[in-house]
Write a structure and sequence with these properties.
heterodimer, A: 130 residues, mainly beta, OB fold (Dihydrolipoamide Acetyltransferase, E2P), globular, B: 389 residues, four-stranded mixed beta sheet
């Protein structure tokens, strides 16, 4: 897709999420896994949303997933594809599907991680068709 | 403790304006407040409780209490987006049942049209300290594409079609033609809905609600106050509220919080969906209605598209008359918040004061449902079941 690009708002970084965004700058997507209950969660929290333990640790995601749902935003400066992608690790995250014709996107398609720069902040995790 | 028949809706008012560049926001709140009090046959001096959400300008409820000159013993500013006012009714009833107040005023007002707001298609400004913002805002979530994510998944799992969604708008437009205040009074067809420009796949322009200025207000009173008034007594039989969200990555977009708020309200009322004669369902988008009706139990999960098709929501034609004022899709969506007008039209139906062309015969049991926030991420669902005594 040629033409205008959507401005990607810089993510708000705080002490709780700084490791996530530092890893993003190095091309790694981090998830949080609770060592008390074993559940992986997203977005990452210091306290496990399932069992409330503070024994949560960062784990690297494989970067592979499938599209759970998507929508092509047409009423925008440049159309873009927003989606929920379910990662191999089992969590589903909000993201964009990039570098493809929006009309080619379907639920169930396999996708792979591809970070994209944000406007003045750390890069953000997006996905391309695998 | 139950709120069943412990509180009544005695006054309702919907501001007739849909575009208010010449009025202030506080003024709109005051106009609807006085309108609802006049409708009830009460005066400002009778009010001992005030409820509002963040559309009321100022410090919680304090600025509007000051502006209106209210003398109160109870107030609440629960903020859950467009569902706030259905929640306020329930919370007012709880406060009345607990003896904390006897006449509660609830107001909503907004002027997004006067302010040129592109409500559904531009990002909202959120507090960056909200824990989800950094993990969502970069990807361009706006109201329309968040509801679209649910619609797309609903179509994928259940075979729901754009034509079925369109029937929701068609029914709303059939009702709005009789409402002289409705923003859009033209009857539309399924073909016109699906041919309207795509906003966020699979939602077309006519799948989306209107953007309007204006507002509305409610007066919730103790039963003994209601009995002293000249209006029909409209009892609150049951109320349910629920929150739903992406569940820390266990995302399921096929249902809304109505799955929980509905059964809670029905249980308190001692009723089933089949008992309800009229429904007001927050219709931010056509998909919102389809999913909410499923979740409330008016059909099996996944059958909502079939339920709404072929005019089944049209009063006098279908089995489940809905949003007979034209709803948010065709009539009014003041301040981008839809649950206030849902309660107002349900009360009109129960009083027999809906437009004669859309009035449900002998309407004695109605349901009003609000959704606040985004069904694609986190939202509040609130269900009220009302009875004409």
């Amino acid at each position: 897709m040629a033409g205008k690009r959507r401005r990607i708002a810089p993510p708000a970084v705080n002490p709780e999420t700084k490791p996530f965004w530092d890893a993003a700058a190095n091309g790694t997507l981090l998830l949080k896994k609770c060592s008390a209950c074993g559940e992986v969660h997203y977005y990452p929290r210091a306290l496990c949303p399932f069992c409330s333990s503070d024994k949560t640790e960062w784990v690297a995601a494989s970067g592979r997933g499938t599209i759970y749902s998507y929508s092509v935003m047409r009423r925008a400066e440049a159309p873009y594809v927003i989606a929920y992608v379910t990662l191999e690790e089992g969590v589903t995250m909000m993201t964009n599907i990039v570098d493809c014709e929006p009309d080619a996107v379907r639920i169930g398609q396999r996708v792979k991680l591809s970070f994209r720069p944000s406007d003045g902040g750390p890069p953000v995790p997006m996905f391309t068709l695998a | 403790m139950t709120i069943k028949r412990k509180a009544c809706i005695a006054g309702v008012y919907e501001h007739p304006t849909r575009h208010a560049p010449d009025k202030s926001l506080a003024q709109l709140h005051a106009e609807v407040a006085l309108g609802a009090l006049a409708d009830a046959g009460l005066s400002k001096a009778d009010v001992d409780a005030y409820f509002c959400a963040t559309d009321a300008p100022g410090l919680g409820p304090m600025s509007m209490i000051d502006y209106l000159g209210l003398k109160l013993r109870h107030f609440d500013s629960t903020e859950v987006g467009g569902a706030s006012y259905t929640v306020h009714v329930a919370h007012a009833a709880e406060a009345i049942a607990a003896g904390k107040c006897s006449v509660a005023l609830i107001t909503l007002a907004g002027r997004p049209r006067a302010e040129g707001m592109a409500t559904g298609t531009t990002p909202r400004v959120y507090n960056p300290a909200a824990p989800d913002v950094g993990f969502e805002a970069p990807f361009g979530p706006v109201t329309a594409n968040m509801y679209a994510l649910c619609a797309m998944r609903h179509m994928h799992e259940f075979g729901t079609t754009s034509e079925q969604l369109a029937w929701v708008k068609v029914a709303a437009s059939h009702h709005a033609q009789h409402n002289p205040h409705a923003l859009l009074r033209e009857v539309v067809t399924v073909e016109e809905v699906v041919a309207s420009p795509m906003i966020a796949d699979p939602l077309h322009r006519l799948d989306c609600c209107v953007i309007t200025d204006g507002g509305g207000a409610l007066v919730v009173v103790a039963p003994e106050v209601a009995k002293s008034l000249k209006r029909p007594t409209i009892n609150l039989l049951g109320a349910g509220e629920a929150s739903k969200n992406p569940s820390a990555g266990k995302v399921d977009l096929t249902y809304t919080g109505a799955r929980w708020s509905g059964p809670r309200a029905f249980e308190e009322a001692g009723l089933r969906p089949a008992d309800i004669q009229y429904v007001s369902i927050y219709d931010s988008f056509t998909i919102t209605v389809v999913m909410t009706l499923e979740d409330l139990g008016f059909c099996e999960k996944g059958q909502g598209g079939r339920l709404v098709a072929d005019g089944n929501l049209v009063s006098g034609v279908g089995k489940l008359p809905f949003n007979t004022d034209g709803g948010g899709l065709s009539n009014n969506h003041p301040g981008n918040r839809g649950s206030m007008t849902k309660v107002i039209e349900a009360v009109r139906q129960l009083r027999g004061e809906a437009h004669p062309k859309v009035q449900v015969k002998n309407c004695s049991l109605a349901l009003a449902h609000g959704t606040g926030g985004s069904i694609g991420t986190r939202h509040a669902s609130a269900t009220l079941i009302l009875e004409r005594e």
